[in-house]
Amino acid sequence: MADPPQLRVVVTGELDVLSASGLRGAVARHSADGCSSVVLDLEGVTFIDCTGLSALLACQQEVAATGGTFSVAALSAAVSRVVSLTGTAGRFDHQVLESA
């Protein structure tokens, strides 16, 4: 495990009303278990709606509430467009992921 404990989530497909709660739940569980660094790789996201964006913001708040760090990496064109249009791009720290 990384020091500090890090969760890297690779999100693919659609991040919408059907999948957002699963992402939020996974991040909340790991955060509660002491994971202090969360990185979401969003390169594979083909569609994101307002519920998906809300989930990203909620994940960020969840991690911050426990004193952890939250960042996104490898934004897909779909995610980049939505965060740009909604003015939320500045809300996320961006991190370059190294190959595993």
TrEMBL record:
Entries under InterPro entries matching the protein: Anti-sigma_ant (IPR003658), MlaB-like_STAS (IPR058548), STAS_dom (IPR002645), STAS_dom_sf (IPR036513)
Gene3D superfamilies this protein is in? STAS domain
The protein's superkingdom reads Bacteria
Q: Name one Pfam family in it.
A: STAS_2
Q: Where is the STAS domain?
A: 9-100
What family is this protein classified in?
Belongs to the anti-sigma-factor antagonist family.
**This protein is called what?**
Anti-sigma factor antagonist
List the source organism: Nocardioides abyssi
